[in-house]
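Entry type: protein chain
Record version: 2
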Amino acid sequence: MRLPFHCRVRYLVTALLAISISTGIAAAQQSEINNSLSEIEQFVATTLGQIGVIVFLVGAALWFVSGRNASRTQWGWRALWGGAGMIVLSVSYNVFVTLFENLAPGMIVPPFF
């Protein structure tokens, strides 16, 4: 049994509308997820740099005022270089992200089931 032409057109339009709405919702969710992940990444990178500066300054102060205390000198020196390493890591990460974040704009990877 064949459906009349106007029923087939109605079903086709309904199916296309449902597909376009679900695609639009998926694209909006993907955009929200990308924005959220981008904000989290930016927060983590900024926090890493700020903590690195704080550790570097505390380590430098501890090393500078340690006097003849070998333990404070050692911990100050370690904190100084640890903070410097965190600063270098933060700057390197920000440069890496800036260089590659617009490599494939608008690319949506399909989910694997």
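Comment: Helices lie at 5-64, 70-100.
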